[in-house]
Amino acid sequence: MRPLSRLAVLLTSGVFLAAADAPPPPPPAPPTAPPSAPAAAPASDVVAQRGDAKLMTADIRDALSRIDSGVRDQLLANPQALQEFVKERMIRQILLVEARNAKYDQNPDAIARAKDAMDTAMVQLWLASRAQVDPAYPSQAELQAAYEANKARFVIPAQYHVQQIAILVPPTASKEVEAEALKKAKDARAQVAKPKADFAEIAKKMSQDPNSASKGGDLGWLREDQILAPVREVLRGLAENGISEPVRGADSFHVVKLLGTKPQSIAPLEQVKTDLIAALRRARAQQETNAYLEALLKSQPVQLNDIGLADRLKAAK
Length: 317
What we know:
It contains eleven helices and ten strands. With about 325 residues, the chain is α+β, with helices and mostly antiparallel strands. Among the domains are: about 45-100; about 160-265, Roll (Chitinase A, domain 3), CATH 3.10.50.40. Residues about 1-40 have low confidence and may be disordered.
């Protein structure tokens, strides 16, 4: 037997009395209507439904309460991501109903996996209870020091305020179709380049991008890493209020106008404070967890008999 040399990473719900002279029993009460069924939940409380399977607001709230707070905040701030989360939970609910109807809740393998999942959850919760981080951590000084040491992670790329007119053309378009799209893009460029031309009004009429055309082609402020590479290169060479020649993208020609530029910068501490505090507290909790495990195994090391272990396990099949 030898001591385990490494710490394993643990990651990882009466008596009836009657008298002889008792008065006669009262006449039976008239029959009453059976109790009414519980009122159905208001339709507004149903988040997702497929047939009889439903997910209620309380179900989603409960699911969100059990995930990382940072992930939860991101989901709540992004309607599309939240809808995907709800859809995944609904699919899980549908499959769970099917599995139960097929008696999979009595399947030995399912029971064993459920027990293993329960054990893992208990271990995780127990470790979390052992790794209590001081509510006052980090201090302002610790927060400032972490910010200074990690400034490279808080770089905000250069940003461009852009208007565009997009003329759609499929990547596999024939030469004739592409030439026609390019002609339309050049015509649009010629119109917006005229003195006193209103780019927004022309974009509303000519742009084929449904998301920006109604806004006069205004794409708002975009980080340079959010912009198509060929368009990004053109923007870097434009003066403010400059208008580009048509630029070929993956599925369209773009005529872009540069409305403004913000150079690369470092996000101020106040802007990243919430995320930085969460990261520091997670790191401290991990340190506390590691210290607890080290102390646990130091007090009584695990003895592992690994001589011929693989062979013994194979023979046990």
